[in-house]
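Hi all, posting the design record for the shared folder.

TITLE: backbone redesign
STEP: 1 of 1
STRUCTURE INPUT:
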């Protein structure tokens, strides 16, 4: 019985194959389809256009638009003209809401009627528009958007073809011909804001050869979106904010003297129409000459204020604090050359009169090893053998984080030269870094107080000299 079943099954298969082989090759038996060259909105290039509109004291700003990139199945044999239209169909909106779990509604008929179209096309031999088809709401109609969120359905429109379409007629897709503009409208929260730091530090440095540094800053700002016409921003000094700042930061800043504040220049920054941010920012400056009398620390609080093309002036939320600290320094923080003559006979002439964590008896200018490891500080006092005008110095100490330098003519009264940290250096011919003073300071004794990194890896290899101190001086006698 099994063999009979097998033969019967094989016979059915052979019969079926014979029927298939006997079918005609006539194209009327093909699967139904279209030979048209369809234009359509490819989803990957035409996601929902999400637009934000802001209501501000100066007006309503934002951009409501869809830029549609249109594709064709095959390269165009003739120029194809394309446009778009608002699809004011609640059924389309309902279908969108159901698919996306939303509850959007269309805006008023006046808004829909105000939408403008910028057509485009696909050129010969191309399959994508070079420029998009744009449908947008004019800026003067933005105020008509009253709902927090609304939806504007948009449909692709095939305007026509310039010439023959060949064997494939050009048609518009009925399935991939829609896009949606989603508009969110809200009151602007801090429409214009500072994009850089809101706390800026300036240093005024008094030196033997003059006052350097000064008070200057640039403050950039940006809008949440582009606005109609150029707008500008400025900063308005508000000294009433100093007390609150000091209370919240534990500081003791004071107001700039009236004579200095009167010389404060604030140049507004401009945001050009169509842009969202400044190219240069608001510029703040005080002439260097009027800062020579400043001593101590000062605070200049300034509120951001904007002015729009329609004449509206608005006080924004942001506040900029310009902190001005003054100090006296003998060290040039940006030297360009070593001042004075580098002394090469230090080991023969100089000596150490006192030291902490160094052996005074073993003093040497190159490779002086500390007497202890992993210490947090060290100190040495060097006797130069005679009084000289010290003008530059070199300190090479791998485990050092900072060195504070003092000069004296009698090893009793000391002049504070300054610290290495934060000051620039210049290289000598041996590629060693030298700190430079603004001028030669008479001294016979040099005190160097070091702050050291106890966890520096170099402490593990004292035998190789990684922890050794090297130093030198230049005189401008």
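Okay, here is what came back for every position:
SEQUENCE:
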């Amino acid at each position: 019985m099994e063999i009979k079943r097998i033969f019967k099954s094989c016979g059915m298969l052979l019969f079926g194959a014979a029927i298939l082989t006997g079918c005609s090759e006539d194209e009327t038996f093909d699967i139904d389809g279209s030979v048209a060259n369809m234009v359509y909105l490819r989803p990957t290039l035409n996601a929902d256009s999400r637009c934000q509109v802001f209501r501000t004291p100066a007006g309503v700003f934002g951009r409501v638009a869809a830029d549609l990139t249109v594709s064709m199945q095959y390269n165009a044999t003739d120029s194809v003209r394309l446009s778009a239209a608002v699809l004011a169909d609640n059924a389309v909106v309902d279908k969108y809401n159901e698919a996306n779990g939303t509850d959007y509604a269309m805006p008023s008929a006046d808004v829909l009627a105000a939408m403008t179209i910028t057509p485009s096309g696909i050129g010969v031999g191309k399959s994508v528009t070079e420029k998009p088809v744009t449908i947008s709401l004019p800026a003067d109609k933005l105020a008509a958007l009253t709902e927090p969120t609304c939806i504007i359905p948009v449909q692709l429109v095939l305007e026509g073809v310039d010439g023959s379409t060949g064997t494939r007629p050009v048609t518009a897709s009925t399935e991939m011909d829609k896009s949606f503009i989603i508009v969110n409208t809200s009151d602007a929260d801090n429409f214009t804001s500072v994009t850089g730091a809101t706390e800026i530090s300036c240093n005024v440095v008094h030196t033997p050869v003059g006052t350097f540094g000064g008070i200057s800053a640039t403050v950039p700002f940006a809008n949440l979106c582009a606005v109609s016409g150029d707008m500008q921003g400025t900063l308005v000094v508000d000294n009433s904010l100093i007390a609150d700042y000091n209370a919240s930061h534990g500081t003791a800043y004071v107001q700039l003297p009236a004579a200095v504040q009167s010389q404060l220049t604030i140049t507004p920054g401009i945001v050009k129409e169509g842009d969202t941010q400044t190219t240069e920012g608001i510029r703040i400056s005080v002439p260097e000459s009027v800062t020579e009398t400043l001593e101590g620390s000062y605070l200049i609080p300034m509120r951001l204020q904007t002015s729009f093309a329609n004449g509206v002036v608005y006080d924004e939320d942001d506040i900029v604090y310009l902190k001005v600290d003054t100090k006296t320094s003998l060290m040039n923080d940006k030297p360009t050359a070593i001042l004075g003559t580098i002394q090469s006979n230090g080991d023969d002439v100089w000596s150490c009169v006192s030291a902490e964590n160094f052996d005074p008896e073993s003093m040497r200018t190159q490779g002086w090893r500390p007497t202890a490891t992993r210490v947090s500080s060290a100190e040495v006092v060097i006797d130069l053998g005679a009084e000289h005008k010290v003008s530059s110095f070199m300190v090479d100490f791998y485990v050092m984080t900072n060195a504070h330098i003092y000069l004296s003519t009698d090893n009793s009264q000391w002049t504070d030269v300054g610290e290495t940290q934060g000051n620039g250096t210049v290289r000598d011919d041996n590629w060693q870094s030298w700190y430079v003073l603004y001028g030669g300071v008479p001294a016979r004794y040099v005190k160097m107080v070091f702050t050291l990194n106890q966890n520096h890896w170099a402490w593990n290899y004292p035998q190789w000299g990684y922890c050794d101190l090297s130093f030198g001086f230049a005189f401008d006698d």
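COMMENT: DSSP finds six helices and 31 strands in the chain.
Let me know if anyone wants the other runs.
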